[in-house]
Amino acid sequence: MLDSPLYVLTLLTLSVLICEWLVRNTFLRHLGTALLVILFVAVLANVGFLPSASEGSVIYTGVFRYLAPLSIFYLLLNVNLASIRRAGAPMLILFFIGSLGTVAGVLAGMYLIDGSTHFGDLYPAISGMFTGTYTGGSVNYNAVALHYNVMEEGVLYAGMTAVDNIITAIWMVVTLGAPMLLRRLFGGKVTEVDAAATADVERESEEISIITLGVLISVGLASLMASNLLTEWLAAAGFNVPSILILTTIALLLAQIPYFHKLPGGQVIGLFCVYLFLAVIGAFCELAALAEIGPLAWRLLALVTVIVLVHGLVVFGTAAIGKLDWDVAAVASQANIGGSSSALALAKSLGRMDLFLPGILVGALGNGLGTYLGFLVAGWLGA
Question: What pLDDT shows up at residue 199?
């Protein structure tokens, strides 16, 4: 039965459903659906309910080749670049400087742990993945991972994801307490930001009709096909451009068209595809291979810690020099490290509803910028 694609797909989708329910209704909400689905499916694969990485499945191949890129495409349809200006100059400046701080942190962290030696051929890819995820979020992390086939190293990928989740959670606590502490130590003013609410910034639920579903699926598949064809054409012309980068560009261009940007259903479909992708990553986590990542565990932890600390020093240092609002700096930093949802949660926790929309907007900007920055770092280090 393990050889049946229908069985494998059923169990993967059911795993996503179970993990989402557990995160919403139990103490496991602290883990998050992304990490929980990896762990849950890893257990299923290792006890024999799902094929392992070595056994393989056409479903695994299909998810990597089609669903994972499509998830990135659908999530990026929510990035309306024209609305980013509403975030305000201080938020945008701190966000972009924070992105540069992330790059500096990746380079510093890799130098500290001698990443080129310990990660080998994956050194550029891992650098690009952490650059992407700490610029805008997991969409960028997965985009770089897909191009460099890092997901085939299931145990390493799961370890990286676990470390990422741990440090991201810790950074949420830091950014929650830092503004109050820094205001007591160094003073500072609270700057109100103009953040008139818009109806389409955060969609907590989406109703999908046959028409909208048909448009989303057909446009997504056509864009994926176009990106693959363009990659082949450019390769024949002597230019090596990742197809995922072309797909990202197509998605961002379509997102600027109001019809596609406001089309309901894309975020839900994209997120579900992401969870399916992560479920397959879990299936790639064979216990027999766990010993291989053992010595790398502390290096990964040291790497991510250095990245986030350097990023934080750059962001809050810039806020200190420019005498900017500490709350704005914290939300901008969280938009880099955790993405829109984390920035939103932080703004609520700080009692700064005026930073509600700006945090979401720069987080959305990070979803677009992170992939480019991630590939730039990976390409530079791999040259």
Answer: 40
